[in-house]
Design goal:
Peptidyl-Arg-deiminase_porph; L-arginine/glycine Amidinotransferase, Chain A; protein-arginine deiminase activity; alpha/beta; Agmatine/peptidylarginine deiminase; globular; hydrolase; 26% strand; agmatine deiminase activity
Length: 352
């Protein structure tokens, strides 16, 4: 099963999986409520969401899923009182179990002005949590014409958006741990073939190392390593040899350094600094700087009230020199095991 790279025959389908840094029409999120796992700390989580929506709407629209009319009215009042540009906010109503839309939202392929919403099964990260409403979210949003005349392809295969990264040109980056956990009977070759076919990729790069304490996704790639423009990879490093993550993240860094671009060159590498441990009681939380969100003209970066925040921002300035870096305090968010990117799903330009 070894080897970080797996190649398949180039895809001939016209649809393409765009990179996150390509033009977007909106960012999709869901508003936290007392009926979600956010309930015990709802106030501080709402404040983090307001900061997130403020960051998004500086650059483009936000589409906010709400559970009902009362939630919409409340969210609208909170946003208006914080001077959010409401002409860039659109509400849509649908039930949801949780608000991690990176994993329950649509993975969108495009062919010019035509779009295909890939609706993979969402199983609550391998059955860890209830997900019956989340698994129907894409279908329900499509029924309300949120995505215009885009078609939806239902795929009976568990895959979360946080588990995959693409450069928009046929290269996919993912982790073996997550995909193997979801599909333990499938070989790497079988999974490579399926991902390549559905996502229109002709190259799959697998990472065998990398994990974060407090991450319950089984090592989603978007907490560890991210593709960036011009053959770059931004990844979470750890330089503290006394930290429990050191050996595994060092092994991941070595794997990433061994990867090659389509034309055989090393990737340009941007290691992110390591934040000091953030604890909730005795539980360590997953404070990853790799969980950033790319929007039109900016990168929204998770911050953790740590001196490393400024260093992480400086790394992202180098990796995305044409974009503004905006810090979002994600300390309330990582309490539920994810961060900024996990909450959001980009919708390509023309889709909404």
């Amino acid at each position: 099963m070894g080897g970080a790279r797996t190649y398949v025959e180039p895809m001939t389908q016209p649809y393409r999986f765009p990179a996150e840094w390509e033009p977007q029409s909106a960012i999709l999120i869901a508003w936290p409520t007392a009926d979600t796992d956010w309930a015990p700390r709802l106030g501080e989580v709402e404040n983090a969401y307001i900061q997130l929506v403020a960051g998004i709407t500086r650059f483009q629209p936000a589409v906010i899923v709400v559970a009902d009319d009362d939630v919409e009215a409340y969210a609208q009042a909170r946003l208006q009182s914080n001077r959010i540009e409401m002409d860039r906010v659109r509400f849509v109503t649908a039930p949801y179990d949780d608000t991690w839309l990176r994993d329950s939202g649509p993975i969108t392929l495009r062919d010019g002005a035509m779009f295909n919403l890939l609706d993979f099964r969402f199983t609550g990260w391998g059955g860890k949590y209830g997900a019956s409403d989340d698994d129907q979210l894409i279908q329900r949003l499509q029924a309300q014409s949120l995505f215009g005349d885009a078609k939806r392809e239902s795929i009976d295969f568990a895959l979360e958006g946080g588990a995959i990264e693409t450069d928009g040109a046929g290269t996919l980056l993912t982790t073996w741990q997550c995909l193997h956990e979801r599909h333990p009977d499938a070989s790497r070759e079988e999974l490579t073939s399926k991902l390549s076919d559905w996502l229109k990729q002709d190259r799959v790069l697998w990472l065998d190392h990398g994990y974060l304490e407090g991450d319950d996704t089984d090592a989603h790639i978007d907490t560890l390593a991210r593709l960036a423009p011009d053959d770059a990879i931004v990844f979470q490093a750890c330089d503290d040899e006394s930290d429990s993550h050191y050996a595994e993240l060092k092994a991941m860094a070595d794997e990433i350094a061994a990867l090659r671009t389509r034309d055989g060159r090393p990737y340009r590498l941007f290691p992110l600094p390591w934040a000091q441990p953030i604890l909730d009681g005795e539980r360590r939380l997953a404070a990853s700087y790799a969980n950033f969100l790319i929007v039109n003209g900016a990168v929204l970066m998770p911050s953790y009230g740590d001196p490393a925040d400024a260093k992480a921002a400086a790394v992202l300035v180098e990796a995305f020199p044409d974009r503004e870096i905006v810090q979002i305090d994600c300390r309330p968010i990582i309490w539920q095991n994810g961060s900024l990117h996990c909450l959001t799903m980009q919708l390509p330009a023309g889709l909404v």
